[in-house]
Amino acid sequence: MSKTVTGFSKFSKEAKIDWLVENFFDNNESAKRILKTYWNRDQELQELHDEFIENTISNYYLPYGVAPNFKINGRDYVIPMVVEESSVVAAASLVAKFWSARGGFKAEVISTTKIGQVHFMYAGDFQKLKKHFKDIKIDLYKSTETITKNMRKRGGGILDIELRDKTSELENYYQLHVTFETKDSMGANFINSCLETIASEFKNDEIQIVMSILSNYVPECLVRAEVSCDVSDLGENDPQLFATKFEQAVNIANVEAHRAVTHNKGIMNGIDAVVIATGNDFRAIEAGAHAYASRSGKYKSLTNCEVKNGIFKFWIEIPLALGTVGGLTSLHPLSKLSLQMLQNPSARELMEIIAVAGLAQNFAALRALTTTGIQQGHMKMHLSNIIKQLGATEDERAYLINYFSDKQVSHSAVVDEYNKLSK
Hints:
The chain is 49% helix and 19% strand.
């Protein structure tokens, strides 16, 4: 029996849920109850959420936490983080306090250039195409003046338009490579509107426009964050050994892709959590960061470490195309609250904050890996989740937490001890 549906988008939210429950949950009323449990009681707020995407039937909540004690460029911050993974917020908070006693984090934006491209096919003479581009380039700028007017008032706009020959990679393929400054806006809609207008002005009978779209690979929208201190101030039993092993761990991530992927995933634990909390696009950030990690032709670490002349230095350079105005940053109440918590940063300041969050997360992971091992801290944080899954009572929970206070935590060990209690 077919379960296709016509006109689903026009159903009321109730009707959408009824259809889903009838066809995919065997009329299980608990599914309907769960979906409705996550509706917001504030009808106006729920309607706002319903309008973010299509075919909304409920909300999917993620924990919203904060990591205090960050000192960035001499300024104190509490950083909001939205993440479901245990130990991420705790690790960030611990590292923030550690480095706040050692001068804090230093961060700087290297550049903020963003990129868009008009991709087109042309089978004619290249010199003729070059002449056409040269003749029309001023008109390409002029065609976007109504779109760029407000952005230009804020100091942004189109920086340059280049004609690029890509025929060595794909037959008849060329592009207009356009660079932008979008100030405090992430600028996706602005960039795409400009590109489509430029494409319309540029095309002729011999030029076939394939598509016009921004790029989420922005290697010139770059931020750097770093920490440094005397090796003797690292606070370990053998600080020189710790510094050496830490540097070796980063070097391994620079030569071994299997390690680099997990290494960078840990960085993105911190970065994505703040990107989501501030209403930015974590998928774009992820894609751009991993492309940047591969820019040499080999996938490598996004962080670097140097131990030299008794000084430990650890830093990250990463592309981050972020906005503090427009999109969800202006619509989602928690996104707006996050930006207020961060003292209403500009897009450049937000780049610095988020880069620091990634660096802090990586420092926490590498410190654990090169000393006690990653599982000790992570599984301690995960213990409460395992206990909840088992349905333990409050007394059983208290016993299990106390029992594992000085023992290695694993899922099977917790289950075994719980089963002993049950018996």
